[in-house]
Amino acid sequence: MKKYALTLGLSILALAACGKQAEQADSKPDSQQAEETTMAAEDSQTSDSGTTLSVQIWDPNQEPGIQEIMDDFTKETGIKTKISVVRWADYWTAMEAAAQGGQLPDVFWMHSNESERYMSNDMLLDLTDQIKNSEVIQTENYPEDIWGLYSYEGKNYAVPKDIDTIALWYNKKMFDEAGLDYPTADWTWDDLTDAARKLKKEDGSQYGLCLKPDNDQAGYYNIILDRGGYILNADKTKSGYDDPKSIEAMKYVETWIKEGLIPSAETMAENSEDVLFQSGKSAMCFQGSWMIAAHKNNEFSLANADCVELPKDKVTGRRVSIYNGLGWAAAKNTEHPEEAWKLIEYLGSEKAQRKQASLGVTMSAYKGTSDEWAKSAPFNLQAYLNMMDDMEILPYSRSTIAWEDVNTQLVTKVYTGELTMEEACKQMAAQMNEKLAEEHK
């Protein structure tokens, strides 16, 4: 099996679940973020009061709830934890620097985009036997696809943390002012487009919709699957971007761009979608379930916003949600493997997963626990649970970061008028197919 060196010879533009939409305005330089990761690892120690495990995550919106669960763990076991938050844009650069210096945190979030790189390079603690012998972690209680994200050559390297789906957010006040009915579960993508046209203001003060060029999981992946296209085939050997149905679906995005229904790529490069939405710049946006904390703690969203299921395709009638899930992993060289496993086991337990949901941190991976999450904020969060009726796992391969990065660049060229959407789709497929072929050599 070909192994990939722990180097990042490309910029991390391929931001995915719990990543790109959770990006913050933090402007710390990469060197400082890497230093904080190393310092977090060094905080792992043993003292008279017991072990302190360093824990690293990337979403500050989830930190308060995660901290509360960590506190429960400490009360039960005496094992202390210290959380470090490193923003998504710097997370993997910092992790790479820490890995090269042998200073990875004891326990940390792992993402499907990066998991195989870390697993194949033997950087993660093998949890196979611990999971097999655990009375708390039973694999059948979590989605099989999420286990697959964190398994390599028959071994397990992480325990599922969460599951996520996508919904449409809308500004009720803007709809009222435009005399429009609120979106419903019966909406098609054409209905959304028509509403965006009526909500757009010609002076540029208000857009009908916002969608960043890199927002694949919460954005255009779902539209492609609805129409019957695909992003990656089952054996990960071929891209589906040049499939006629994929191109048809992506032309919705091209329409939004050409008609000015969404802000420019330049505007969205400077502002995240939730910020544009919460500042009254955009009437609608697509948000992953991991973004709820950013809305339930925001006065504007509480006063003006709600959410509903994604639109469906007018031709196929399908309404799909791409889904993903993070994993709790540990460094192979942690000085506290037994304690690290105890923490991961606890975080994956029904008790902790149910609390994660009830606190509104995010939907939990443990089956049957997310109903409580839907009651954690005054929005129609049931829409996210309803989106679980038709889900497909976020497409990934060994070189996900590489081909997603180029795809983002190509989609951006549609935003700037340098390419048509059909041209971009064909180029995306071609570059993906080259990278996929390399994977299978």
Low-confidence stretches: 1-17, 24-34
Helix content: 40-55%
Mean pLDDT: 90
Query: What does the main sheet amount to?
Result: 6 strands, mixed
Can you count the helices?
19
Strand content: 5-15%
Principal-axis shape: globular
What class do helices, strands and sheet pairing give? Answer: alpha/beta
**Gyration radius, in Å:** 21 Å
Topology record:
Layout: H1 30-42, E1 45-47, E2 50-57, H2 63-77, E3 80-85, H3 88-100, E4 107-110, H4 112-120, H5 128-133, H6 144-149, E5 151-152, E6 155-156, E7 159-160, E8 166-171, H7 172-177, H8 189-199, H9 216-227, H10 244-258, H11 265-270, H12 273-278, E9 284-288, H13 292-296, H14 299-304, E10 305-308, E11 321-323, E12 327-330, H15 337-348, H16 350-358, H17 382-386, E13 391-393, H18 400-415, H19 421-439
Parallel strand pairs: 2-3, 2-4, 11-13
Antiparallel strand pairs: 1-2, 4-12, 5-6, 7-12, 8-9, 8-10
Helix pairs in contact: 1-3, 9-10, 18-19
Provide a descriptive summary of the structure in words:
This protein is an alpha/beta fold and 441 residues long. It is 43% helix and 12% strand. It has 19 helices and 13 strands. Strands 1, 2, 3, 4, 7 and 12 form a six-stranded mixed β-sheet that branches. It has a three-stranded antiparallel β-sheet with strand order 9-8-10. Strands 5-6 form a two-stranded antiparallel ribbon. α1 crosses α3, α9 packs across α10 and α18 (400-415) runs antiparallel to α19. The longest helix has 19 residues, at 421-439. The chain is globular and about 60 Å long.
